[in-house]
Design brief:
Rhopdopsin 7-helix transmembrane proteins; 25 helices; protein dimerization activity; 17 strands; Pdz3 Domain; elongated; alpha+beta
Length: about 800
């Protein structure tokens, strides 16, 4: 038999088996009313109503708790039932009973006949769940199973989901049969439903193999599954067949505990794995699993395990709570079919926020309903809790859906409503082409005209020190505004909004102590700015101020550069820093080229030479010559690596200035004939890359000068922080030099470079030296640059 025929045969067997189960459940469920009355035997002759499903009226006469059932279809109750008919310590009135003879508590005999339209006598929520939602869910789950079988049947995790979908669909559909105390319906609810958590654990084991993870040990899972099946079969057989232990309420409690245990194991492992993998890329995956399992199983635990025993309620919430299991297959089908995960953090954050907002309205609605209903009939605590949960969830989902729909259709359905987000997006797109202040002001004016048509505006230059506003206002309102600015404003800050008596002041930028502001009048209809408009004004002011400050910075740099060109010399610190920065960039490029090209080629040729010397026989003379060439290549490789390290010190960013200097000194000690001592005291401030690079280059140059000219035996380097400055000192005991002569000697280019580098960092340098008196350098560098220096670094500095 071929594999294809074998697979088709298995498929046919599964389909036929499912059809048989569905047909059986249909005949057992939908052609007779559900069993809604439970009796308790007082003695051999008396059967008293123990429980009647709330809001049920399938008989034409009311049946209440405490009534005695005398006859059923003319047969005395004590003859109608046998010992084997007892289920969970009680006796159930079959749905097929057409006539009940009832002895009321006042010894009044009454006859109750089954209504022809008995479905209309069921509670509305129960009728919808049992007779409408159950068939719909069976169809939906079957379709999802078919979809996975058609598109993903080659994946092991998809095949597990197919089985799980079918089990959940059949479990929903078997709700009615379970209510009718049917033995097959009971088997589905008591055996298949508790197995769902363990099947999903098996699915997660297979699914997580894609991420090299494991959810639970296979042996442990198999053991738990076997125990679950044994316990479930025992409960089912104890209820319907053998009745080993007949304790009232024991079987329902055991089946709930079995489901709760499976859920608890899933939840425990998900929390454990989430905490274990918080630092890698797995937390979103485990958070999705965690949220979905909480949504799926928590309603069942709360409504069917906690509430019946805390509020003395009956087990009427199973159909409602099992609806939440629908979230499991939807999520897992998405995970199997999709290649990307949805942003669970975004969803949970939004849901939590809407849940808090919905709490108070849900409390108010439930309180009003309870107050109104109490005038007619009693509404028990269990119903109130259930109603509150439904209201809370409904309002939360309504708020969540409202946000989604408003984002999708707001621009189409409400085009006249103030939409600041679209305006900001439009404004930000236009900013990329702005090169002048006039262009920016034109774009800003267009947005103000469109978004706030009831306001007028004008741009001003404000000098608070000189008490001047320019240009001259061209309207009466603007003239009043200019006076209000000088009268009411004592301080301005960039990117802030200032309220005036006749409008709002938007502070856009500052150039040479003169602020560029935008005055916006109050609305002509005398209404206040609403929160959306105020937030939009704040945001667009920040956008515009950033562009203004950038344009002003460029103007400062251009003016400074023009001054330098007019003086025919480059003396500005920011210009020197720019040149050093460009030099560092070129050093990095050169180091990268040397490392990626020349060094790699040398290594390749070295290895080829080494291989040839080992593989081919050669004379001793040739061997010695090739060995010399090999050693020469090794020296060249070492030299290139040293050059790359000198051009681009990698440790500066990774380990900081002090460790980089220690590494530099360790390297220098291998090639110089004097000792070097580093005294690096703790530096608490965060140093910029420019400052660290500058100090590193200064040390390199000083060590090079000492090696070439000083003839020193010892050099000492000190580095410390003093308030907002870095203090650096370099001393050696060499021959020294004439302090006056070296300033006029162009041969000392190294010292000139050090002077220029210190000046570029806005620092101070002092050199103390004399012939035979050694060499002493004191340098003080500011940790933070001046405002002009910061602008220069912002524009020109290239990492």
């Amino acid at each position: 038999m071929s594999k294809r025929i074998e697979n088709n045969l298995k498929l046919y067997v599964v389909v036929i088996g499912l059809l048989f189960i569905v047909l059986y459940l249909t005949f057992a469920s939908y052609f007779a009313p559900p069993r809604t009355i439970t009796l308790e035997r007082i003695d051999d002759q008396q059967y008293v109503v123990h429980y009647v499903l709330a809001d049920t009226a399938i008989y034409d006469a009311p049946i209440e708790k405490g009534d005695q059932i005398v006859k059923m279809d003319g047969i005395p109750a004590h003859e109608y039932y046998s010992e084997d008919d007892r289920i969970d310590g009680y006796y159930v009135v079959p749905g097929a009973v057409q006539e009940l003879t009832i002895l009321k508590q006042g010894n009044q005999v009454q006859t109750a006949l089954l209504k022809d339209d008995w479905r209309g006598g069921l509670p509305q929520d129960l009728f919808i769940v049992l007779f409408i939602l159950s068939p719909i869910f069976l169809i939906l789950f079957t379709y999802m199973a078919y979809y996975l079988w058609k598109n993903k049947r080659d994946q092991p995790d998809a095949r597990i989901l197919i089985a799980c979908f079918l089990i959940i669909g059949i479990s929903f559909y078997g709700n009615v049969a379970s209510y009718n105390k049917d033995i097959v319906g009971g088997a589905i609810i008591m055996i298949a439903l508790p197995a769902i958590p363990y099947i999903f654990m098996h699915f997660m084991n297979v699914f997580l193999e894609k991420f090299d993870l494991s959810f639970i040990s296979k042996k442990l899972l198999a053991s738990l599954f076997v125990i679950d099946v044994i316990v479930s079969i025992f409960i089912w057989s104890n209820r319907y067949l053998f009745k080993f232990i007949d304790i009232k309420g024991m079987n329902p409690l055991l089946i709930k505990v079995t489901i709760a245990v499976g859920y608890g194991i899933c939840l425990f492992r998900l929390i454990q794995l989430f905490l274990r993998h918080r630092q890698d890329n797995s937390p979103p995956l485990f958070k999705i699993f965690l949220v979905v399992h909480i949504v799926a199983f928590t309603p069942f635990i709360v409504l069917n395990v906690i509430m019946p025993y805390f509020f003395n309620g009956e087990d009427t919430n199973v159909p409602f709570s099992t609806l939440f299991l629908f979230s499991l297959p939807i999520c897992y089908m998405y995970l199997v079919s999709s290649k990307q995960l949805f942003d669970i953090d975004f969803i949970v954050t939004r849901f939590r926020r809407f849940l808090v907002v919905a709490f108070l309205p849900a409390v108010i609605i439930v309180s009003v309903i309870a107050a109104v209903v109490d005038f007619g009939f009693v509404l028990d605590t269990g119903k109130l809790v259930k109603l509150f949960l439904v209201m809370l969830l409904s309002i939360t989902l309504l708020l969540y859906g409202n946000e989604i729909l408003s984002n999708q259709f707001r621009s189409r359905l409400f085009s006249n409503v103030f939409n600041g987000q679209d305006s900001l997006e439009r404004f930000s797109r236009q900013l990329s082409g702005v090169m002048k202040h006039a262009e920016l002001e034109h774009i800003l004016g267009q947005e103000l005209t469109e978004m706030l048509p009831l306001c007028s505006y004008q741009f001003f230059d404000v000098d608070l020190a000189a008490k001047q506003v320019s240009p001259l206002p061209n309207t009466v309102m603007a003239r009043h505004a200019s006076k209000s600015i000088l009268k009411e404003v004592s301080e301005l800050r960039i990117a802030e909004l200032v309220r005036l008596s006749d409008g709002i002041l938007l502070v856009l930028g500052c150039f040479k102590h003169t602020y560029r502001v935008l005055w916006l009048s109050n609305k002509s209809n005398h209404t206040q700015f609403n929160p959306d408009e105020w937030k939009w004004l704040q945001t667009i002011t920040r956008y515009a101020s950033l562009v203004y400050e950038n344009l002003y910075s460029v103007e400062r740099m251009v003016e400074d550069l023009q001054d330098q060109l007019n003086n025919r010399k480059l003396t500005s610190p920011w210009m020197s820093r720019l040149l050093f920065c460009l030099s560092e960039n070129e050093r990095q490029k050169l180091a990268s080229d040397l490392h990626d090209a020349a060094l790699q080629d040398q290594i390749i040729w070295y290895r080829k030479l080494e291989t040839s010397m080992m593989d081919y026989p050669m004379s001793p003379k040739l061997q010695r010559e090739l060995l010399e060439i090999k050693e020469g290549l090794l020296d060249v490789i070492h030299q290139i690596r040293e050059t790359c390290q000198e051009l681009r010190p990698q440790l500066l960013k990774e380990m900081g200035l002090a460790e980089s200097l220690r590494h530099l000194i360790e390297h220098e000690l291998l090639r110089v004939n004097f000792s070097i001592e580093l005294l690096a005291f703790p530096v608490n401030a965060t140093l910029s890359n420019e400052l660290m690079t500058g100090v590193y280059r200064i040390v390199q140059e000083l060590l090079r000068n000492t090696d070439k000219h000083s003839r020193a035996d010892c050099a000492i380097i000190e580095l410390r922080q003093s308030e907002d400055y870095i203090l650096f000192r370099y001393t050696d005991n060499g021959i020294g030099m004439d302090e006056i002569a070296w300033k006029h000697n162009r041969m000392h280019m190294g010292l000139s470079s050090i002077h220029e580098r210190v000046r570029s960092l806005e620092g101070e340098i002092k050199i103390i030296t004399s012939i035979g008196g050694g060499f002493d350098v004191h340098i003080r560098l500011p940790i933070k640059l001046s405002e002009q220096g910061q602008y220069a670094s912002y524009i020109y500095m290239v990492e």
